[in-house]
Specification:
The protein is α/β, with parallel strands linked by helices. The protein has two domains: 111 residues, 3-Layer(aba) Sandwich (D-Maltodextrin-Binding Protein, domain 2), CATH 3.40.190.10; 81 residues, D-Maltodextrin-Binding Protein, domain 2 (3-Layer(aba) Sandwich), CATH 3.40.190. The protein is built from ten helices and ten strands.
Length: 214
């Protein structure tokens, strides 16, 4: 199988859920993939605020997810058009046909799979907490954090938020639309920690080596 064919299959699967809207852009016998090729660009939806995965630096969106999208667009012979938006708006944009594909560290779960079609996973991860509090850092079970004294932030619309609401009902949860806001809150002790995916935690620790995060 050629490289172009592999990328074509990947993109076809990724955009299938949004394809019904995109079919209107093409002739009746054209596929969603053909519509993208005729348009000459692959429209990517991403949050642009997930460190190391999809983040904005010096006015440009960069990261692993962006590199993957560029590779896909290159394999199709089209340009990449990047649209950034709040994480919890991404799947709706895909369903409406505003974007062709979403790549933004989106966890695959049954609820989302009822709305869109996933390819992957291209990465596996777990949950972790960025904190300055030893008590939070030493927690070994979710039950250790399920107290009224636990104050956490997490990204709105994320599986981390679902995790916290389900397993930490006694904790105080603050939903944010930007990880940098959460980092500032942790650093100022406004909240106890940021609950997120492991790669995001590692990136934050690397970017703020002197903040005292653990």
């Amino acid at each position: 199988m050629t490289k172009n064919r592999i990328f074509s299959l990947l993109v076809t699967l990724l955009v299938f859920a949004a394809g019904m809207a995109n079919l209107q852009l093409a002739n009746a016998d054209d596929s969603v993939l053909s519509a993208i090729e005729k348009r000459g660009k692959l429209v990517l939806g991403t949050s642009g605020n997930m460190p190391s995965m999809s983040e904005t630096r010096d006015g440009k969106v960069v990261g692993f997810d962006i590199d993957l999208a560029r590779l896909m667009a290159s394999g199709m012979g089209v340009k990449l058009d990047i649209k950034t938006m709040a994480f919890d708006k991404l799947l709706s944009a895909l369903e409406k046909g505003d974007v062709d594909v979403v790549i933004s560290n989106v966890t695959i779960n049954p609820e989302r799979n009822m709305r869109v079609v996933f390819v992957g996973p291209y990465m596996t991860s777990g949950k972790c907490i960025v904190t300055k509090k030893d008590a939070l850092a030493k927690a070994e079970e979710a039950t250790d954090l399920n107290t009224s004294d636990t104050r956490l932030a997490t990204l709105a619309g994320s599986t981390s938020a679902v995790f916290a609401k389900a397993l930490l009902p006694k904790a105080t949860l603050t939903l944010v639309d930007d990880y940098e806001k959460a980092v500032t809150m942790v650093n100022s002790d406004t909240i106890g920690g940021l609950l997120t995916d492991y790669p995001i935690c590692l990136s934050i620790l690397k970017r703020y080596p002197d903040a005292g995060f653990v």
